[in-house]
Amino acid sequence: LQITGLIFGGVGMVGTLAATAMPQWRVSAYMDGNIVVFETIWEGLWMDCISQLGLRLQCKFYDSVLALPPPLEAFRALMCVAVGLSIVSFLMAIAGVKYTQRGKEGARGISIFILAAGVAFLLTGTLVLIPVSWTGGSIIRDFYDPEVPVPLKRELGAALFVGWGSTALLLAAGAMYCHCWC
């Protein structure tokens, strides 16, 4: 169970890092009758990208942190904290698996690192879930809002799905480690 939790936590950690770095949080939606699409717009936490005909990709980092909308600043901060905490959680899980005494039964045989890693994985999963779900909810709300112009409507990007998958793995790893402690 501890090794499975370690694998889930490691994959969740990599997924958290990937979701934070990916520019595909919001992807342009095509709602017109036009079949030919010349460009795709990606909006992420750190940059905007435009892909023209799938051949040329241009990305631009946001110029100023102060010019960003407050939710984006908060999402960046939460995801950065989640990346750091996922790395610390993974290292604690490694230490917990290494220092668990297999010959003894009960709480003395299980390292305190197991409980710390479990709680940290649960907290990391929650930190990833908040910005990913909030962004997904706002995309869906704006997509169905008739007052939002069609060129400004967006769809769920790949980074959101990576974030949700990472959340599931991190929460599962945390539950496994907390169960090992109990």
Shape: elongated
Give the CA-CA distance, first to last residue.
Answer: 13 Å
Q: Can you give the mean pLDDT?
A: 86
Q: Provide the gyration radius in Å.
A: 20 Å
Keywords: Cell junction, Cell membrane, Membrane, Tight junction, Transmembrane, Transmembrane helix
GO molecular function, one term: structural molecule activity
Function: Claudins function as major constituents of the tight junction complexes that regulate the permeability of epithelia.
InterPro entries: Claudin, Claudin_CS, PMP22/EMP/MP20/Claudin
Describe the model.
With 182 residues, this protein is an alpha+beta fold. The chain has a single domain (1-181), classed as Butyryl-CoA Dehydrogenase, subunit A, domain 3 (Up-down Bundle). 58% of the residues lie in helices and 13% in strands. It has helices at residues 2-21, 70-99, 112-143, 158-181, and strands at residues 26-28, 39-43, 47-52, 56-61, 154-156. It is elongated and about 60 Å long. The relative contact order is 0.23. Claudins function as major constituents of the tight junction complexes that regulate the permeability of epithelia. It holds the Pfam family PMP22_Claudin. The chain crosses the membrane at residues 74-97, 109-136, 156-178.
Describe the secondary structure blueprint for this structure.
Elements: H1 2-21, E1 26-28, E2 39-43, E3 47-52, E4 56-61, H2 70-99, H3 112-143, E5 154-156, H4 158-181
